[in-house]
Amino acid sequence: MHSRSSDPVALALQRGAASILDAIVDVAASNPVVLIDGRAGAGKSTLARLVAANWPLAGQPQLIALDSLYPGWDGMDAGVECALHDILRPHARGLLSTWRRWDWELEMEAEASAVTPALGVILEGCGALNPATARLADVRVWVQSPEPARKRRALERDGDTFRPHWDRWAAQEDSHIRRHDPHELATLTVTIP
User: Fold this and answer.
1) Ranges under pLDDT 70 in the chain
2) Which of 16, 75, 154, 193 allows an S-S link to 70, with CB 3.0 to 4.6 Å?
3) CATH classification of 8-191, choosing from 3.40.50.300, 3.30.230.10, 3.30.300.30, 3.40.50.2300?
């Protein structure tokens, strides 16, 4: 996972991924659960993809984005609850489970995906880290980045789809941070410029 990039964001993501990969190895489990939380545009999805692509254990991890579970723009808490009920708890008990993807265009549940307890899980998204989810995770990551950089990245990525919802989503993030203090629950903090 070495790169000659001089891009400070890319370098921070690579360093963060390397720290997470080291933590995964240190867990000494064949099916660890990694939670990656942070505000919109912080770099969670890119970091999660880097970790998945360089997974240090046998078998591919199951990479699940909370964006696929949130039932719409007001659904942060509901999406996290779904992940807890349909993914994290069954995985912790060694049970095969399924979760349903939220179709943002049709505003309804779509196809189901299976989660096998034999493989690791990377669950990334705003709200991922709270006291209930933290108890079921081996590696807990908080990704932080300054708001101007986050907003620029998020709007470059999602453009006009996200722009009208930025403040509404940020209010849910604020509530999550006040209630759960995810930074304090994290075992690692990754800072992205």
Assistant:
1) 1-5
2) 75
3) 3.40.50.300
